[in-house]
Every structure is written in C-alpha cells, then in structure tokens.
Design brief:
Elements: H1 5-27, H2 32-82, H3 88-169, H4 174-186, E1 192-196, E2 199-200, H5 209-217, E3 230-232
Parallel strand pairs: 1-3
Antiparallel strand pairs: 1-2
Helix pairs in contact: 1-3, 2-3
This protein binds zinc ion.
C-alpha cells in the first residue's frame, strides 16, 4: 500500500464532509419561489387597483352627468310652474317629459348604487390583499435573513475545512494526489475504498489474493479490480 494512503483516506473523509456542507448550502431554500409568488400577487393587486381607479373615474363622471341631468329637470319644473307656458298641450308635454325624466333618474340611481356597492367590495378586497401582501413580504424578509445567516455559517465552515484540506493535500506526493483527484471526479466523489474482510468497502467485491498481496508488499497505489478505487487497508496502516 502506498505510504500516503492514510493521508488519502483522511483527505477522502474531509472531502466527503466538505461535499456534505456544499450539498447543504445548495439545498437551502433561498425563498425564490415565495418571492416569485409575492411578485405575482403584487401584479394582480396592481391590476385590480387600476380597474378600481377606472371604475371610480367612470362613477365620478356619471355623478357629474346626474347633476347636470337634475339641473335640467329643475329647469323644466321651473318652466312648468313659471306660468310662462299657457298652451295646455305644451304644458302636458312638458309634464310628461318631467315624469319620464324622473323615472329615468330612478333607474340611473339604482345603477349608481350598484356601481358604488361594487366599488366598496373591490375596496375591501384591495385592502385585504394589501394586508396579505405585507404579511407575506414580512415572512419572506425573515426567511431571507435566516437563509443568509445559515448560508454564511456553512460557507465559513467550508472555508475553514478547505484550508485544512490544503494543508493535508500539501503532505501528499503529487502523483497519488493527482490520481485521487481524477478518481474522485470520475467516481462520484469517492476515490478511496477501505478493505473490509478482504472486500472493497464501496463496491463490496471480494479482492483477489494477488491484490491483497500487492497491497501488503508494495509501496504503490493499488486499486480495487472491480470499481478502480484506491484501496486502504487499516490493518496495514501503522
Ligand atoms: Zn471496489
């Protein structure tokens, strides 16, 4: 077994630990989904508010038209009782016109009432949506704050162990280190296997007597014949 296999085994343990920390960072929820949902709600709310403004403007116009209408009816009534019109036919027509106007006015009132009621409901919906949005925004901010803190803690831990790793790697000859890095890259992060009851601890293949003998006698990198990982035998380590 290569004299640096113990160091490679330690490096492997450290790399596994760093890999786990990195996976944890990658698995942290940064709140992006919630942020997108909040943004969509905000856009919907803006649309409802714009619609409300439109209706409000229309209703205001309508109120002005009603005032003008009322003014005309008042004028007609003033004419009717002014005594200025003496022709009975003309008076009758005017009276009829006033009656029709008053009926139309009742319908307009009912319509106006319906619009104001609709607006009141919309206003309540908008208020509620705004409160919900504020609440969601506060939750999101708290989540992001929490996310940032967790991420910072994990990243500083990774940094610490990366320094430790560099110190360890510096003690290993370049050739076994390069082989280790290649295998780790190729074999999903695990380059070192431990000999357990004459078998490879990763792929569980029983090792041949020839491999075990080489492992015992040679200062060389000996790999599992099946998975190709570098073999470390704790029994052989000093
Ligand atoms: Zn193996």
């Amino acid at each position: 077994m290569h004299r640096h296999m113990s160091l490679l085994r330690d490096l492997q343990a450290l790399d596994h630990y760093i890999d786990r920390l990195r996976a944890e960072v990658a698995g942290l929820d940064d709140g992006e989904r919630v942020r997108v949902a909040i943004e969509r709600s905000r856009q919907r709310l803006e649309q409802i508010k714009a619609r409300y403004q439109e209706i409000h403007a229309t209703a205001t116009d309508q109120e002005l038209r009603l005032q003008a209408f009322d003014e005309r009816v008042r004028q007609m009534e003033a004419d009717l009782y002014s005594g200025r019109i003496s022709n009975p036919r003309e008076l009758q027509l005017l009276q009829h016109e006033i009656e029709q106007a008053k009926q139309a006015r009742e319908e307009m009132d009912a319509e106006m009432l319906r619009i104001w009621e609709q607006m009141e409901t919309m206003k309540q919906d908008i208020d509620k949506a705004e409160r919900d949005l504020e609440h969601a925004e506060r939750l999101y901010q708290a989540h992001v704050e929490d996310y940032r803190q967790r991420k910072a803690v994990l990243e500083s831990e990774i940094e610490f162990h990366m320094r430790e790793r560099a110190e360890l790697a510096a003690q290993i000859d370049s050739e076994p280190l390069a082989r280790y890095e290649q295998l780790r890259e190729r074999l999903g992060g695990t380059a070192v296997a431990v000999v357990e009851q004459n078998a490879c601890s990763v792929c569980h293949t029983l090792l041949t007597p020839y491999t075990l003998k080489r492992l015992q006698n040679e200062d060389a990198l000996i790999a599992c014949e099946s998975c190709g990982r570098l073999l470390y035998d704790p029994m052989l380590a000093e």
